[in-house]
């Protein structure tokens, strides 16, 4: 552990959520097997750090703890095509909207009414250009407008797994399995709930035997990678993502049981429900040291990007000073960072 006088850091400034990360520690591929990833355990009561591996997770969890997981399923949201007028484009689906419209990101210049063509008779028409960089489009198959389920079926045939931008390689066949949790079920995410990627089938079955285990769904959008570009974090506008919490999971949240949230997506969904008392909707909750968790007692998560809303969420549990101290130790111990990287447990 680091020693010496504690330094008070201004928790409201984005510049203070920065840290130095060697590029070599950004994980390009997952651990194999999944549960062999490193696990850093931080015990708040003891102010202690333990270095172990993910397959030892249950050694640190009380049997009375309820474990909440996100069962969203990543879709093949990245597709390549061309404008009818000429010029290649890349499209990343962000989320469905109402009336068979979709929020997307498009790499390549487009204007309103631009028509795009893809494989398998899929096409799209640009309806509007949003200030946040997204575009609103409608999709067509053989010139017939299609809905979300129809689009997902076509994307499954022609799309690519949308690996995060910091993974500097093309997706491959293994990513279709590896960038998906073993309990993924509800199609709709364009990014994986990465803390859950460490569970193998065997470890997941053991989890269900030992702990009160429940699911919710939050479809992770591409906004999760959006950088915070304001100096005062309170000025950041958080992206919205669709969520659905079954009644059995609501009952756990409404109870007094300790809760382990597996991942930042579960944490934000639980905490949004606690504040808004709605089991279905869109969550735009921004957790940070000035807006701390009210219900989640334990957090399992990966190591996140500097200056991101995700590292601020970690700091909402343990403060910015402790977060930066732990991240410095993780770098020194050569933990692997980001989506395919190692894990951290806060108890």
Write a structural description.
The protein is α+β, with helices and mostly antiparallel strands and 347 residues long. It has 2 domains: 14-74 and 173-346, QueA-like; 78-158, QueA-like (Thrombin, subunit H, Beta Barrel), CATH 2.40.10.240. It has helices spanning 148-158, 175-178, 201-210, 247-254, 264-276, 309-318, 320-332; strands at residues 38-43, 48-53, 66-70, 72-74, 78-83, 88-96, 102-107, 115-117, 122-129, 135-141, 144-145, 186-189, 212-218, 241-244, 259-262, 280-283, 298-302, 343-346. Helix 6 crosses helix 7. It is globular. The mean pLDDT is 96.
Number of helices: 7
Percent helix: 10-25%
How are strands sequenced across the largest beta sheet?
Answer: 2-1-18-17-15-3-13-14-16
Q: Span between N and C termini?
A: 17 Å
Mean pLDDT: 96
**Spatial extent as radius of gyration:** 20 Å
Keywords:
single chain; 347 residues; alpha+beta; QueA-like; Thrombin, subunit H; 2 domains; nine-stranded mixed sheet; six-stranded antiparallel β-barrel
Short description:
The chain has 347 residues and is of the alpha+beta class. The protein contains 7 helices and 18 strands. It has a 9-stranded mixed sheet. Strands 5-6-7-10-9-8 form a 6-stranded antiparallel β-barrel.
Explain the layout of strands and helices.
Layout: E1 38-43, E2 48-53, E3 66-70, E4 72-74, E5 78-83, E6 88-96, E7 102-107, E8 115-117, E9 122-129, E10 135-141, E11 144-145, H1 148-158, H2 175-178, E12 186-189, H3 201-210, E13 212-218, E14 241-244, H4 247-254, E15 259-262, H5 264-276, E16 280-283, E17 298-302, H6 309-318, H7 320-332, E18 343-346
Parallel strand pairs: 1-18, 3-13, 3-15, 4-12, 15-17
Antiparallel strand pairs: 1-2, 5-6, 5-8, 6-7, 7-10, 8-9, 9-10, 10-11, 13-14, 14-16, 17-18
Helix pairs in contact: 6-7
């Amino acid at each position: 552990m680091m020693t010496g006088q504690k330094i008070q850091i201004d928790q409201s400034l984005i510049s203070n959520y920065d840290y130095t990360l060697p590029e070599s520690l950004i994980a390009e591929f997952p651990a194999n097997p999944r549960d062999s990833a490193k696990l850093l355990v931080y015990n708040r009561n003891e102010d202690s750090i333990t270095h172990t591996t993910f397959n030892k997770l249950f050694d640190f969890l009380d049997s009375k703890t309820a474990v909440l997981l996100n069962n969203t399923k990543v879709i093949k949201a990245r597709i390549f095509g061309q404008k009818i007028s000429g010029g290649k484009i890349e499209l990343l689906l962000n989320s469905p909207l109402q009336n068979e419209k979709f929020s997307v990101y498009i790499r390549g210049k487009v204007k309103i009414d631009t028509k795009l063509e893809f494989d398998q008779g899929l096409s799209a028409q640009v309806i509007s250009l949003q200030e946040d960089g997204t575009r609103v489009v409608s999709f067509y198959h053989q010139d017939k407008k299609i809905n979300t389920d129809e689009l997902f079926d076509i994307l499954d045939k022609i799309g690519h797994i949308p690996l995060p931008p910091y993974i500097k390689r093309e997706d491959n066949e293994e990513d279709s399995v590896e960038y998906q949790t073993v309990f993924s079920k509800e199609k709709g995410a364009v990014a994986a709930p990465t803390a859950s990627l460490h569970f193998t089938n065997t470890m997941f079955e053991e989890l269900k035997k030992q702990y009160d285990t429940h699911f919710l769904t939050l479809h992770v959008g591409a906004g999760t990678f959006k950088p915070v570009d304001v100096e005062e974090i309170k000025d950041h506008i958080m992206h919205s993502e669709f969520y659905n919490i079954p009644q059995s999971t609501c009952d756990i949240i409404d109870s007094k049981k300790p809760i382990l949230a597996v991942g930042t997506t579960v944490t934000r969904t639980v905490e949004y429900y606690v504040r808004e008392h709605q089991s279905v909707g869109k969550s735009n909750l921004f957790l940070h040291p000035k807006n701390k968790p009210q219900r989640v007692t334990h957090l399992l998560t990966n190591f996140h990007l500097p200056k991101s809303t995700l590292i601020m969420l970690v700091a909402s549990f343990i403060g910015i000073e402790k977060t930066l101290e732990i991240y410095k130790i993780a770098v020194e111990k050569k933990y692997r960072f980001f989506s395919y990287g190692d894990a951290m447990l806060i108890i």
